[in-house]
Predict the structure.
Amino acid sequence: MRALSAATQIADAYRAGVYLGEQLKPLMPEVVFLFTTIDYADSADILEGLHDGLEKDCIVIGNSGDGFYETEGANDFGASALGLNSDGATQWQLHIGKNVSADPILATRTALQHHQHASLFFMVSDFHTDASLVESVLEHEIHVPVIGGFAADDQQWHKCALYANHEVLSDCVVALSATGAIDFAIYVENSITPMGNVGIIDQAEGNRIDSINGLPAMRFIEQETGKPILRSDATSLMIINEHEQGIKRVRSIVQEIGHSENTLHLYGGIAAGQKVQVCLAQPELIIEETYQLAALAAAENNINPVAAIIVSCAGRKKILGTRLHHEITALTQHFGKLPLVGFPSLGEIGPLRTTHGYSANLFHNMTYVLLLIGS
């Protein structure tokens, strides 16, 4: 496997695409991962420019995020692209599941329909859906690793863009399968720590939580944290399940959508009857865990990495601010200037590492997901 990455902050979408394509052209990529800010999402200009710059047709997958990552750093405006060329050793296929907001289960199944033969999936989704229903398919029906995340739009909560070859899509799941020879390693880290008392969800519908421990849901959060929720907080609920040893499920609170004095909304639903505990993320711990993860990846030496893709929660970006660069610096410290791209997401997808290999595929919040692709 060979790889190249590039980034641009050219304002014109078509010219930005041409620049990225020209940078990746020497590789003659089989597939390109494209991550942009929402500024380029009003038309397919960046995709047309990308193909024109490449001077060839190839598979393109990607999405808009809350900014983007590339080897040289994290940015709030622009685009990054990663090209891969396996010299025919890996077969790539792109599939689309539509209407994910209305039927997340069917959309996810459709996008991952050829999972029996795949070695790995990269998957992105519109954020206008109940991510826990997407997770139900990933966890129980797909038995190969899936990594990816939910597209974003710079905290505007209006629309997002999914990229599939020459098209800009919404309300979809887009999945890329890799079949055949592909060497990879997945690392998922989230050191967020629960606090306060365990509560039981009394009333919930979809990703809306109405009551916990007999209290309005927002009042329960304030009781356990000792203060009202602020927009600057990255407050989450951890699902407590004694039957899932080593499995951490976190659902972040979405303050910008359906804000109410009593109810709260999450990125993924939690059913009534489940136990939860409040979590508050700490910036120092987030930075520390990123360096620990990179050190672990280097020490294990499972693969000779030629590229990396990062999907990291936009909530982590909100907390870290100007220190977000640590999520990239941690990797370059161990692997040098590896071709690297990624995006801050509204939910992350990936299996956890266990003593027996990878766990089932899970949906995460406040989490850092790293895919290393080997030579």
Observations:
- The chain has two domains: 2-189+285-374, 194-280.
- The CA atoms of residues 209 and 346 lie 18 Å apart.
- The longest helix spans residues 283-300.
- The chain has a mean pLDDT of 91.
